[in-house]
Amino acid sequence: MNSDRLIIFDTTLRDGEQSPGASMTKDEKVRIARALERLRVDVIEAGFPIASPGDFESVQAVARAVKDSTVCGLARALDRDIDRAGEALADAASGRIHTFIATSPIHMKMKLRMEPEQVIEQAVKAVKRAGKYTDNIEFSPEDAGRSELDFLCRVLEAVIDAGATTVNIPDTVGYNLPHQFGELIRQLIERVPNSDKAVFSVHCHNDLGLAVANSLSSVINGARQVECTINGLGERAGNAALEEVVMAVRTRRDVFTCDTRLETPEIMACSRLVSSITGFAVQPNKAIVGANAFAHESGIHQDGVLKSRETYEIMRAQDVGWAANRIVLGKHSGRNAFRTRLEALDIHLDSEEALNEAFARFKELADKKHEIYDEDLQALVTEASQEAENEQFKLVALRVCSETGETPSADVTLNINGEEKRASASGGGPVDATFKAIESIVGSGTELQLYSVNNITSGTDAQGEVTVRLEKAGHIVNGQGADTDIVIASARAYVNALNKIIEPEGREHPQLGDV
Length: 515
Fold this sequence. Notes:
The chain is an alpha/beta fold. It is built from 16 helices and 14 strands.
């Protein structure tokens, strides 16, 4: 192991997808995986193959599509999980099986109902079974952050002897503080007799807002792999944000003795793609990828930056992809320019018919706004793929009336399995009226949990991207819609969410466990 190299393990497609409503289709996972490959991420955890047939197919598709990164599948320390992961990764140019079992007293007693010796035995058995499929094996003691140190040392020594090449120490519930977690990593490396035969990794959750800090403390204390996600996506409060970990290590070379191999100008493209597909908007003041990350409003700051950028900027915006040159398409752009730009964004359509449909959507959008940027194209293709997969409900027509002193109203026409149905409703605003009209047709029984609007690009003609989160009987989905008209975008997002929640087969991601 090169001590100067920090391995970046991205789990956006697995742990990130466990965010309520962040479920991704197979094609969307492949698009994100290819973007991560361009970013030169070392390991891409593509999913949890045993979770569902859809997840198995997604891991398999990513394994076949990615050539320059290692593709990883997660598996509990069970034979059927490991065999399923091995099958999903069979076609990978470089594959890894990541198996785990809980090691904290509370998890062993209350969840596993196993004695410590049984846990060690099961862990060793799982690692050895993974060895039937690959020699690239990662083991995680789930809830390591609350496990007993002596027992952790015993488990890690045993799994390394059994063939684990990476041992990952998860702060599963985000309980640790930076100085504690860094010290834990240091002690494990010192006390495990065969620690030199494996890469030590960390996987930190953000429940106390310390995932990045805990990860960086671990790196200072000897960890040489960090598990993270784009935009910090992940269940509950999320995971360590890849972009923050990578840029902290690269910016503070005076502190860190290692660096990553990442092509950091690709960070913004990945961030936007993940945000567009999941519907999880990036907050403006988010480090590195937020809209305000390199913005200066204070006169004192502006004056300093104009005189010397380094006065208030510790890294260049260009280094994370903010200033990349882009071809701006418009209504006069031809089919070839459109196709070429999609290819440059690594968007590959399945057929000429699909290209023609996308080009027609592009022309329709070009009639509404003067300039079409990469973000517009990403949203256009994402919405098209969502509609193609969810055909039960389709928005046919929408008419709204919002007038000073009058109650807003909406007339909606939906196509439901080939039959058109129409309804009208009034509400507190045009969006509220639209949603009520849709519900009067569908009668879904869902509860609206989130309604969010973000502009995709700048300008008064910018597309609005709307996210709608619906819940029904504990099943939570996000729907997305984009249009230059916010009300139409809202209706599309609501219909998209309804298609997912009423026909969830193949898209559910049951929670089998987490590291």
